[in-house]
Amino acid sequence: MNLESWERKFELKIKGIATSDDPAHDFLHFKRVVATAKQLCNLEHGNPEVIIPAAWLHDYVIVPKNSPLRSQASRLSAEKAVEYLQSIAYPEKFHSEIAHCIEGHSFSANIEVKTLEAKIVQDADRLDGLGAVGIARCFATAGLLKRPFYSHQDPFCETREPDDLQFTVDHFHKKLFKTAETLKTESGRREGQVRVERMKMFLASLKQEI
């Protein structure tokens, strides 16, 4: 079976897993991560037989951001993804590398990624938290958690430490801008800087409006 045929299986499986309950992790998130992973794979000369299944299955087990199990999400996803790959007889020689990609992609897991393929999948997922779509995801999550957009006293953290447990815009300063500094591939870093500039433009516009 060629990789395109395998990919149709992965896509169909994820359609049954992803829900619209969390717009930041819905089916469109998976599709964007896969598309970005493919681009980085081509630019960085990675192995698509590892990268494509790992990108499709990276959030196989979705754990809410405010759950105490959040830090275990990528490990759980890796385990369940390998079980799924075994069930459909995807070549076993790729399973351990795919599992490493999935387990290593998460911020909260804090696992060092050791292969080019894992770096690509991690970058693809983190890039989806930046730029225009990153802004949309950030505010979608804030809506689910019922957090205000910004602090009325200091909206842009000019005189205080950012607290993204309280205010949405603080998440830009607490995590998202720093995300670009964690990107592992040269191609990912270039794209990350482009997306960070878009986010800064958004904040500048917001500052004018409030």
Structure commentary:
This protein is an all-alpha fold. It folds into two domains: 1-113, Cyclin A, domain 1 (Orthogonal Bundle); 129-210, Methane Monooxygenase Hydroxylase, Chain G, domain 1, CATH 1.20.58.1910. Helices cover 61% and strands 0% of the residues. It contains nine helices and no strands. Helix 1 packs parallel to helix 3 (48-57), helix 4 packs antiparallel against helix 5 (95-104) and helix 5 (95-104) runs parallel beside helix 6. The longest helix is centred in the last third of the chain and has 24 residues, at 186-209. The radius of gyration is 17 Å and the shape is elongated. The mean pLDDT is 92.
Nutshell version of this structure?
Helices cover 61% and strands 0% of the residues. The protein has 210 residues and is mostly helical.
Can you lay out the helices and strands and say which pair or pack?
Layout: H1 3-17, H2 27-44, H3 48-57, H4 73-87, H5 95-104, H6 116-127, H7 131-145, H8 170-179, H9 186-209
Helix pairs in contact: 1-3, 2-3, 2-6, 3-5, 3-6, 4-5, 5-6, 6-9, 7-9
Provide keyphrases for this structure.
mainly alpha, Methane Monooxygenase Hydroxylase, Chain G, domain 1, 2 domains, 0% strand, elongated
